[in-house]
Amino acid sequence: MNHFLRKKLDGSILILLLSVVLFSWTHFSEESEPSEEFQLSSQWTVSEGESLWTIASMASKEMELTIEEAILWIQKENELNNVAIYPGQTLKVPTEMKGVATE
């Protein structure tokens, strides 16, 4: 009887340890990548006098990003090598998903 109880206890401990490891892994992996969240983009046509900084400043307020994060996002999504932009240029900018229904 003692051997049977010990096997059950060992199995329970193993299951408990695996549960703790899986919980920790999923919990901490979610927090480690906040900047990789899915973000939609919208098109922005650059007007005379606008800079990447001013566009990123407007986008950062809507998306709760820093201006630097918004600039980096815009540069990456638009394959820009620097911060130079020109009037009439169309850029993808981060935008918040509002009123979108999913199945």
**How would a crystallographer describe the biggest sheet?**
2 strands, antiparallel
Helix content: 40-55%
Poorly predicted residue ranges = 31-36
| Estimated radius of gyration | 24 Å
What is the number of strand segments?
2
Strand content: 5-15%
- How far apart the termini lie comes to 53 Å
The chain-level mean pLDDT equals 77
Structural class: mainly alpha
Overall 3D shape: rod-shaped
Helical stretch count?
3
Structure report:
There is one protein chain. The chain is mainly alpha-helical. It is built from three helices and two strands; from the N terminus they run αβααβ. The chain has helices at 2-31, 52-63, 67-77; strands spanning 40-45, 90-95. Strands 1-2 form a two-stranded antiparallel sheet. Helix 2 (52-63) packs across helix 3 (67-77). The longest helix has 30 residues, at 2-31. The radius of gyration is 24 Å and the shape is rod-shaped. The model is unreliable at 31-36 (pLDDT under 50).
Give me the secondary-structure topology.
Blueprint: H1 2-31, E1 40-45, H2 52-63, H3 67-77, E2 90-95
Antiparallel strand pairs: 1-2
Give a concise summary.
The chain is mainly alpha-helical and 103 residues long.
What key phrases describe this protein's structure?
103 residues, mainly alpha, two-stranded antiparallel sheet, 3 helices, 2 strands, rod-shaped
